[in-house]
Design goal:
Blueprint: E1 2-3, H1 11-24, E2 41-45, E3 49-53, E4 56-60, H2 75-87, E5 97-103, E6 109-112, E7 124-130, E8 133-137, E9 147-151, E10 156-159, E11 168-170, E12 185-191
Antiparallel strand pairs: 1-10, 2-5, 3-4, 5-12, 6-11, 7-10, 7-12, 8-9, 8-11
Bound molecules: N-(carboxycarbonyl)-S-(naphthalen-2-ylmethyl)-L-cysteine (MD3) and fe (iii) ion.
Length: about 190
């Protein structure tokens, strides 16, 4: 379910929270198990963080760059994720992980499934901030032709139920400018991982 502009009312406090997180756990480019540097830069907030390295993908309570726990999940993040999930019929969504993705022009995310979370009955909530992107929403098989969904600053999407295991990705971003975020897109994805 796409909730257009759902995050606009909290944009100022979201951006403040974002600065507090990235001051403690800066964005970094992870390496895939195959040894490729991801074009999207990532960091995390909350009890668990998604990481990738030569050993594989996993959720880890410790930031491997600092050796410390990930920054705490801001209250405004929890409130927004819970309200969005409830709009889509998922009551009582309490994420324990927020993966933050930062895209610059040319950055992309190739088609993948999110299946590292323990309970696939829980939805994922995503919040788009900054310059626009085209989201690819595929099927349950990698070869299924994806739908293109444009996502703009403030849009929130809830992915649950039969959509939870659909392949998805993001097309290479076009150069653009946003008055608050400059040349970047930041996507917050809220998960119940553990
Ligand atoms: C659909 N991020 O972090 S968010 C990811 O815009 C990821 O940064 C994209 O895919 C981004 O894993 C898309 C939306 C999203 C997240 C998880 C999903 C869509 C999903 C899981 C199942 C289906
Ligand atoms: Fe994903």
């Amino acid at each position: 379910m796409v909730l257009r502009g759902f995050a606009l009312a909290s944009e100022a406090v979201l951006l403040q929270a974002l600065d507090a997180i990235t001051a403690q756990a800066p964005f970094r480019h992870l390496v895939t198990p195959g040894g490729l540097r991801m074009s999207v830069a990532m960091t995390n907030a909350g009890p668990l963080g998604w990481v990738s390295d030569r050993r594989g993908y996993r959720y880890d309570p410790i930031d491997p760059d600092s050796g410390r726990p990930w920054p705490p999940m801001p209250a405004v993040f929890l409130q927004l994720a819970d309200a969005a999930a409830a709009h889509a019929g998922f009551t009582g969504f309490v994420p324990d992980a927020c993966l933050l993705n930062r895209y610059e022009a040319g950055a992309r995310l190739s088609l993948h499934q999110d299946r590292d979370e323990r309970d696939l009955g829980q939805p994922i909530v995503s919040v788009s901030l900054g310059i626009p992107a085209v989201f690819l929403f595929g099927g349950l098989q990698r070869a299924d032709r994806p739908q293109r969904v444009p996502l703009a600053h403030g849009d929130v999407v809830v992915w649950g139920g039969p959509a939870r295991l659909r392949y998805h990705g993001v097309l290479p971003l076009k150069p653009n400018h946003h008055p608050l975020l400059g040349e970047t897109r930041i996507n917050l994805t809220f998960r119940r991982a553990g």
